[in-house]
Amino acid sequence: MSERPEILFLVHRIPYPPNKGDKIRSWRLLNELAAQYRVHLACFVDDQADFAHAPVLHEICTSATLVPLKRCTGVKRLFKVITNGAPLTAAYFHDEDMAHAVAAIRARPLVAEVAFSSTMAPYIEEPVQGRPRIVDFCDADSEKFYDYASKAAFPMRQVFSREGRLLYAMENEIANWADASFAITPDEASRFNMRHEISDDVGWWSNGVDTNYFDPHADFSCSAPPIDLIFTGAMDYRANIDAVKWFARNVWPDVRRAFPAATFAIVGAHPTLSVRRLGRITGVRVIGRVDDMRPWLASARVAVAPMQVARGIQNKVLESMAMGKPVIATKAAATGITAKPGVEILLADTPHAFAAATIDLLKNASRRQRTGAAARERVAADYQWDCQLSRFSATLSALLPPAETSSTRESSAA
Prior knowledge:
The protein is of the alpha/beta class. It has two domains: 6-208 and 384-403, Glycogen Phosphorylase B (Rossmann fold), CATH 3.40.50; 227-382, Rossmann fold, CATH 3.40.50.2000. It is built from 18 helices and 13 strands. The chain has helices at 21-34, 54-60, 71-81, 88-92, 96-106, 141-151, 156-177, 186-193, 238-250, 252-258, 273-276, 294-299, 315-322, 331-334, 351-363, 365-382, 385-399, 402-413, and strands at 6-11, 38-45, 63-68, 110-116, 133-138, 180-183, 203-204, 227-232, 264-267, 284-288, 300-305, 327-329, 346-347. It has a seven-stranded parallel beta sheet with strand order 3-2-1-4-5-6-7, with helices on both faces. It has a six-stranded parallel beta sheet with strand order 10-9-8-11-12-13, sandwiched between helices. The longest helix has 22 residues, at 156-177.
């Protein structure tokens, strides 16, 4: 029996536990790779508590190198490169310890190298002959910063514009030297492929959702209090912060006038001070981190995703739909999700439209049930992980010599 070939997998954030959008995607990709290859994982750890999860990674990987992301050092690097033409994002993730670790792994007889996100791609920019390099961009991060710039005031408008411009050039370079690259949705891939600077098409594979885990009829180990509206997500992430602040200030007052006893729960780790202050608003509850999001989704009547800036696909929307909840989302939050507007998801972009849709659902129990049931059927049909990951695996297999793909299949069968 042939030994499984070796592969490098670089990730900008430890992929376990899969409790954030990017970590969910990288965790699923890691498992897909580990089922076929001997994986050498190298990743940053931005939360000291996450080092406790190292045994999980060592169990499924041949090796797992976890490098602490030192925030103070990263900030110093930002100031150092601010005048040298490099994106701040890339500078923040440039680390000598990581570079040495990656160099040692690359000295091994790897069959391929996979970088998750543009921030990790520079570690494999120098090619090794005969060894394909694959980059999963996930999102076109440059366009996210352009979006931020369009809504920001001086001086952050200039900072975001600079980052968008430099990341745009960096993304183009990566797409051109990579043997294959991916985005998270067809729409996100098209944003790359419309650029005349990119010579080869960027592909895509979407996120999925485990409908067996996110099952509204499951027996949860704990329960949550009844909630009218819920927003879920990491609450130290700018797009989520802006979303709940926009909703609380522009939509919630109309909802409360129609339903004076209505409750709105913001559920997610690390709420910033500006988010915690929303808890002063009558009916708004800032819950913070929870061990299991499912009971909270199960207890809610409606899920909201009022994102003002959103890239890629929103896991919070897929998970809410899988839990059979009617979701009201902005068009930005629903991008990349093939749900029928008005049937499987409700779309609203203005405060008035969002409030009207929310009030209508809170009044109409039968519509909530129909929309939620249709939403779950949609994610069950289109967003299973196996189907989505097959796009990536097929591309990787096509890049490898027949002997490598053959040995992979033999080992997997064994």
